[in-house]
Design the sequence.
């Protein structure tokens, strides 16, 4: 019989003692048996280490040291992983339910380089709820799903990892890079993989994030007129929102 793949779950955390335990519980509760759990802490000072040490029996490996940001921490986690696939469930995020990894493995067949599905957004500036993963042809317009709902073959990230040249769009740039190199993607239809907490840096700095996303696509794939028009339209819309908020505050 074919051996089931080993899944490395990597959690990146920095000073998030209030939410880390729920993330750990979400990983530990998974019914899928062959899971490696790694936590990369950025040198927290708020009690996060106490939570990590309390759960030490459930964690295969953890590191606590200063880093250069979330993508540096994610690259660190990748380099010490031993799974066939990697998924990043960072502090504050969770698996949608305890059967998620088992379902993903059974439904996908594990023949592809990247496996992805839906996510459930929390604390969104738009609407909380179920967000469906998009087809790969939509990649030119941005992320096709939450990064917390993607599994990557470890060997791919070992070879390349996340670039530090694209700010908060490094996860999107990685997808563009993998697609440009012929990586195979498999979309799970109507399978919610993760709870994702919105409100991060990329949500707060929309204009900068859009500029980095365009750069990520342009540097890996062909930037056609429709792509340029799309990003110009998005930048115009976001700039308009900022001006409206500024006027509202001044008035």
Sequence:
């Amino acid at each position: 019989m074919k051996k089931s793949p080993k899944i490395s779950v990597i959690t990146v955390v920095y000073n998030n003692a209030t939410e880390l335990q729920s993330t750990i519980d979400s990983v530990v509760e998974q019914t899928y048996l062959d899971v490696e759990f790694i936590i990369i802490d950025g040198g927290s000072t708020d009690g996060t280490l106490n939570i990590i040490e309390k759960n030490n029996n459930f964690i295969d490996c953890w590191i606590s040291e200063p880093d250069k940001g979330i993508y540096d921490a994610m690259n660190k986690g990748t380099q010490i992983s031993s799974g066939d696939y990697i998924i990043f469930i960072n502090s504050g995020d969770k698996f949608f339910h305890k059967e998620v990894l088992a379902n993903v493995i059974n439904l996908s067949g594990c023949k592809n380089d990247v496996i992805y599905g839906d996510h459930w957004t929390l604390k969104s500036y738009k609407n909380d709820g179920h967000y469906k993963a998009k087809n790969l042809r939509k990649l030119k317009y941005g992320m096709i799903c939450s990064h917390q709902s993607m599994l990557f073959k470890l060997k791919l990230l070992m070879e390349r990892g996340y670039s530090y040249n694209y700010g908060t769009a490094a996860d999107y740039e990685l997808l563009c890079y993998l697609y440009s190199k012929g990586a195979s993607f498999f979309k799970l239809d109507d399978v919610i993989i993760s709870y994702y907490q919105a409100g991060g840096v990329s949500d707060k700095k929309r204009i900068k994030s859009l500029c980095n996303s365009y750069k990520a696509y342009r540097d890996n794939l062909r930037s056609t007129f429709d792509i340029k028009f799309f990003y110009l339209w998005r930048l115009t819309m976001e700039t308009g929102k900022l001006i409206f908020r500024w006027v509202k505050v001044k008035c």
